[in-house]
Every structure is written in C-alpha cells, then in structure tokens.
Amino acid sequence: MxxxxxxxxxxxxxxxxxxxxSHIEVKGSKGKLERDLHPDMIIEVEPGQIxxxxxxxxxxxxxxxGLTRSLINNMVExxxxxxxxxxxxxxxxxxxxxxxxxxxxxLGFSHTxxxxxxxxxxxxxxxxxxxxxxxxxxxxxxxxASEVRGFRPPEPYKGKGxxxxxxxxxxxxxxxxxxxxx
Length: 182
Known about the structure:
Layout: E1 9-10, E2 16-20, E3 23-27, E4 32-36, E5 42-46, E6 49-53, H1 59-80, E7 83-90, E8 95-99, E9 102-106, E10 113-116, E11 121-127, E12 130-135, H2 138-150, E13 161-164, H3 175-178
Antiparallel strand pairs: 1-6, 2-3, 3-4, 5-6, 7-12, 7-13, 8-9, 9-10, 11-12
C-alpha cells in the first residue's frame, strides 16, 4: 500500500465533513472548502478519522491513493488551522506595503509593482521587508506566494529580490573574483 495513502486522516473537533459520491465538502472554524475527487477512490468517514482506500493495485490507483489522501488532509488542516507562507525582501530601497487590498512593492524597477489580493487570501506586511500570505487553501496560498516572488526572484550575485523565509540562494562569484591569470 501507499505509505501516504494508508495513513488515516484525523478529524479535529469542530470540523464537519460531507461526502456525496466523489464530491467532498469540509467545514471548519476558518471557513469551508469543496473539491471534486477522482470517482474511483473509496473514502470512508469513521468516528474521528477519514480513511482513503483504492479499488485495485493498478499503477493509476496507487498514484491516486496518496494524492487523494493528501488533498483531503490539506482541506481538513486548512479549515482548522490555516496555512501561511512568509516572504522576505532583500535589497537596498526594496520594500512592500499594503494599500487596502493591494500589495504595493518597490523592487528596483522604474515603476511600483501592484498585486491585488485574491479572495480567501490574506496578505499582511508587518515590516517593509516582510510579507505574510495566509489562507485556508494550501494550493492558493502557495500560488500567491509564488506569483509575488516571481516579480523579482533572488538573483545569484548579490542575492537581491523576493525570497521565501529561510530560502538559501546559491551565490555566484562575480567576474572580478574569478581572477585574471593567463
């Protein structure tokens, strides 16, 4: 069996789960998420846990087993705790601020970069060099973080740009450090 797929998903208190055929709906204190899952997967709700089973040992069902379990687990975790991504801004004069629901960033361009917050996603700027993106949908939080980072990814020579918190940027030595030996 799949190592991920065989693990039961614990249901925290305050989380409701409704399954109709291949459609799952999860409600919790933070909100509500819905998703259509593959119709071949067997989802059983038992007291305090959800178990995902596969109908056969075919390669397709094996790959869907772990995926389905992960998707449901992320939904349960999202409506109970939520997800968060932290971004850091490196560089002189690089900064960010919130104006209403719009993230305004100065990233060394001749213009400011504007990013409109999506529904269900909260963007906070506790410090001009830090951006906190949070929400209940793990995929949406990661997508927004990736889009914000994509405006100015960290460059390898000075490390300037937007990066995930704790991200290690491989630095390159410039042409003066290489040496001029013939």
